[in-house]
Design a protein that fits this description.
Blueprint lengths: L3 E12 L2 E12 L3 E5 L6 H8 L7 E6 L2 E2 L5 H9 L1 E4 L3 H4 L6 H11 L5 H14 L16 H13 L5 E5 L7 H18 L2 E6 L2 H5 L4 E6 L2 E7 H6 L4 H9 L7 H9 L21 H5 L4 H5 L5 E4 L2 E3 L16
Parallel strand pairs: 3-8, 3-9, 6-7, 7-8
Antiparallel strand pairs: 1-2, 1-4, 4-5, 9-10, 10-12, 11-12
Helix pairs in contact: 4-5, 5-6, 10-11
Bound molecules: iron/sulfur cluster and magnesium ion.
Magnesium ion (MG) binds next to loops.
Length: 328
């Protein structure tokens, strides 16, 4: 029984004494887009690399379409990896500059022994067309393209083996804002056209809003909120999510939101020296507003259901309105 394409259970990735990913459990449903958001250092890239077995999990399980990925090797890993592909932040460093676009797109097919030269070239033309490029660009080199066009090429390469899952790690962060929307719209289109499941990683909540069905917010290696898109943006339950949303530049007359924005300017604590209890405590506006309740420093808040479709890791998730905000 699985409509989950990806099922991550209690995943932990340690580098020495630091848990870059700490007991993360997430499910990606087939055909779903899950946005994974957090500041740099929150563990979102490390988690995605552990899914692909680029980083080794220290503990936990990662099931892809029901099959355990952790510890998979050789032919079995290769077969599974074919079905999940990655799109990176900087297309120009992920595309070999010495290869033509055509050769870059043919290569995965060659590696997997797919097709004939003629059929592979036809497939390349088809994929370039699908991502909105003229198939004639196959004779050119990656550096001849703008960032947005190069990302289209990287997406075409990721899609050429007909994967079921795409993990996109900040695929638009290096692009101009006007181009970002084009690439996101392309991914939205491709997702429904090709029935893809998508894990879309970003450091900014605004970026994943349009594309995500659900959003997971990470802070210092842990998921602190996981919610259906409209719940997360409409009624964020975790103070960190609220702070991230308040940093999204929207016209807002509430001076309290200004205040929140400033409070979050506090530095991210060192992962090697986390505060006790809730790791967000050192920056948490709600903790301050509630008069520093002891439970926040004593007990790690579990990710727990707030309302159906929304979970948060905060002892006071139901009381975020104690900090002045839109509904205060
Ligand atoms: Fe803030 Fe306490 Fe909630 Fe942590 S558990 S987010 S410190 S209120
Ligand atoms: Mg990253």
């Amino acid at each position: 029984m699985t409509d989950a394409i990806l099922d991550i259970r209690n995943l932990t990735v340690r580098f020495g004494s630091i848990a870059a990913v700490n007991d993360v459990s997430l499910t990606l449903r087939r055909g779903e887009t899950l946005g994974l958001v957090g500041e740099s250092g929150s563990g979102k890239s490390t988690a995605s690399r552990a899914i692909l077995q680029i980083n080794r999990a220290s503990s936990g399980e990662v099931h892809f379409d029901g099959e355990e990925l952790v510890g998979a090797k050789g032919a079995r890993l290769k077969a599974l990896r074919r079905r999940m592909q990655m799109v990176f932040q900087d297309p120009r460093s992920s595309l070999d500059p010495r290869m033509t676009v055509g050769a870059l797109l043919e290569e995965p097919q060659v590696i997997f022994g797919i097709g004939t030269r003629v059929s592979r070239k036809a497939r390349v033309a088809e994929m370039l067309h699908l991502v909105g490029l003229d198939p004639a660009v196959a004779n050119r080199f990656p550096h001849e393209f703008s960032g947005g066009q190069a990302q289209r090429i990287a997406i075409a390469r990721a899609l050429i083996l007909e994967p079921e899952l795409i993990i996109a790690d900040e695929p638009v962060s290096a692009l101009d804002v006007s181009i970002q929307a084009q690439i996101i719209n392309l991914l939205v289109k491709l997702r429904s056209q090709l029935n893809l499941s998508l894990l879309f990683i970003a450091h900014d909540l605004a970026v994943v809003r349009h594309i995500s069905d659900r959003v997971a917010v990470m802070y210092l290696g842990r998921v602190v909120e996981l919610a259906d898109r409209d719940l997360l943006y409409g009624a964020p339950a975790h103070p960190y999510t609220r702070a991230l949303l308040s940093a999204v530049p929207v016209p807002d007359p509430h001076i309290e939101r200004q205040r929140q924005r400033e409070i979050l300017k506090g530095e991210l604590p060192s992962p090697a020296n986390l505060p006790s209890g809730c790791a967000f405590r050192s920056r948490c506006p709600l903790y301050a507003a509630l008069g520093k309740p002891e439970i926040c420093s004593e007990k790690l808040p579990p990710l727990a259901k707030v309302v159906p479709g929304q979970s948060a890791a905060c002892h006071f998730a139901g009381e975020t309105d104690k900090v002045a905000g839109p509904s205060a």
